[in-house]
Design goal:
4 strands; mainly alpha; 10 helices; extended; two-stranded antiparallel ribbon; two-stranded antiparallel sheet; 302 residues
Length: 302
């Protein structure tokens, strides 16, 4: 019996040793040359210097809400700058008047929609142009993907409908720290990684640092993974004229359009957060009632 147990222990140790060996083979880094170590050290320094910082947003937190004036400014930046290359095909002009959104009136929405022209087939069977309607989706800058690629050197500008939810802050932490980061975000309620990244991207166009080589046709950007991006800097100070006195700076433009894209990605954010608070309150009251009922029922047995 003892011999059988000893053999089982030896077998288990052998299996463990094989698994450990394969793990070290795949995950243990190979020795680096001095030149590779310098490159890695430089990359780590750049990542630390250019880390994306959390911004202050009105829609952050469990009671977050959109700033209507900011959303209206953000739509202006999108319309005058971003819409030249990027579409917003999942949104419609009428959504600009929805509750929890930019707060445009129905009349303003009709005016904004009419500024765009759409080609339709007329009664005679020939294409004719008509002004946009509130029920129309936001007009795309190109007729199709092929036209977009042709106008952008082969690159396809992404649609921005859900960009604020599709992107997030890039973490340089080791892979095994990812669960810790997820738990931290859950506990702190952090959900603004998309807008933080977009703001950092739009304000991240800097002079190329010494010793860093940017490929032809690309531009140095501190927030984009790899620090090289095909899109040139889209914003400049005094590019968009605000009528409410807000600063006409790249930082302000970036904040406003990032907030607008967050709303475009999740137009029901305010409703979701308000409903979430009510659900939590309901669960708290229910838990207290169950606890009191349990005490009352079990008190008869003791």
């Amino acid at each position: 019996m003892a011999s059988s147990s000893f053999k089982g222990l030896i077998s288990a140790l052998i299996v463990f040793g094989i698994i450990l060996g394969f793990g070290l083979l795949f995950f243990y880094p190979e020795p680096k040359s001095e030149e590779e170590l310098k490159v890695i050290e430089k990359a780590e320094m750049m990542a630390e210097e250019n880390a994306v910082h959390h911004q202050e947003w009105t829609f952050a937190g469990v009671r977050g809400h959109f700033d209507k004036a900011q959303l209206q400014r953000g739509y202006q930046v999108y319309k005058e700058v971003c819409a030249a290359c990027h579409g917003l095909k999942l949104g419609k002009y009428r959504n600009l008047a929805d509750a929890g959104g930019p707060g445009f009136t129905d009349g303003q929405v009709k005016t904004l929609a009419a500024e765009a022209e759409f080609e339709v087939i007329g009664d005679a069977g020939a294409p004719v142009a008509r002004p946009g309607l509130p029920s129309d989706a936001f007009k795309s800058p190109f007729a199709n993907d092929n036209a977009a690629r042709s106008a952008n050197g082969g690159g396809l500008p992404p649609d921005l409908s859900v960009m604020a939810k599709a992107r997030n802050v890039h973490s340089e932490a080791p892979w095994y720290m990812a669960p810790v980061q997820y738990l931290k975000d859950i506990v702190t309620g952090y959900q603004e990684g998309g807008p933080d990244y977009l703001h950092a991207l739009l304000t991240g166009y800097k002079e190329t640092p010494a010793g860093f080589t940017v490929s032809e046709g690309l531009h140095f950007n501190t927030a984009f993974p790899g620090y090289q991006i095909a899109m040139p800097a889209p914003l400049a100070d005094a590019q968009v004229e605000y009528t409410d006195g807000s600063p006409a700076t790249v930082d302000q433009y970036s904040r406003d359009v990032s907030a607008f894209l967050m709303w475009a990605s999740e137009p029901s954010l305010e409703t979701r957060k308000h409903l979430g608070l009510r659900v939590l309150l309901y669960l708290l009251i229910t838990a207290i009632l169950f606890w009191l009922a349990k005490r009352m029922l079990w008190s008869r047995l003791h």
